[in-house]
Amino acid sequence: xxxxxxxxxxxxxxxxxxxxxxxxxxxxxxxxxxxxxxxxxxxxxxxxxxxxxxxxxxxxxxxxxxxxxxxxxxxxxxxxxxxxxxxxxxxxxxxxxxxxxxxxxxxxxxxxxxxxxxxxxxxxxxx
Length: 127
What we know:
Layout: H1 2-24, H2 37-52, H3 57-73, H4 83-104, E1 116-118, E2 124-126
Antiparallel strand pairs: 1-2
Helix pairs in contact: 2-3
């Protein structure tokens, strides 16, 4: 009985994984012209899936950058003077990754700019 449950869970996981890969197969149409709270949530969900997937270019990029960053600044014998360099490199890398994301979703605010999202219930979100 446990084998059946295990095989069922494995097949469900494979189905969800292939469904996620199918969703990431194309660049979505939302987030290109106008940014609303609904569009922002869709972009957020897409990017979370993309960065978590080792098959998506953004996920592969993040994995490689994390590996290189850890190899450079991680470890037991890291000198404290490298901290400022590590922080400035992290800021630079995240800004460049965000520039790539802006190519996919041009409606997102430019790096360093604040954008107020208006919702139907007149709440506002600051990005």
